[in-house]
Write a structure and sequence with these properties.
The protein is an alpha/beta fold.
Amino acid sequence: MRKLHVFTTGGTIDKLYFDALSEFQIGDPVIGGILQQMNVGFDYQVDELMRRDSLDMTDEDRRQIQTQVCESKAQHILIMHGTDGMVETADWLGGFHNKIIILTGALQPAAFSDTDAIFNVGCAVGALQAMSTGVYIAMNGQIFAADKVIKNRIKHRFESLTDR
């Protein structure tokens, strides 16, 4: 992988907790710091597209993601995304046959000590270097074809449709 293009959209991975407000808010993207902390050996570019909880994403938001992926000269694309709308956004990206696109995020904010964020990012970066062109979701230590995965909200994880 010569260059990785990262697009951030918000989601749980970037959420912060404010005691005074007693609610989560989406903060600055954390992916740049994670990649720097991992001391990755490749060039990367991070572009923030939006700060949106994926439950609030619209078709216009997904069209913006689709357009940015299309316009990127990079073959390797990482999309940081909220987990609730990840599968739907992946579906919007299914027409790209010349890029490796991985969506990932976190079920717990990166700011939390028990976060899955760094693990998911590491799996996604590894998958970007091993997978053939297509769209994938990297969550819970697994790489899923984007059209064969669901989020199991009860078990708090992603699962293959073929395992159901």
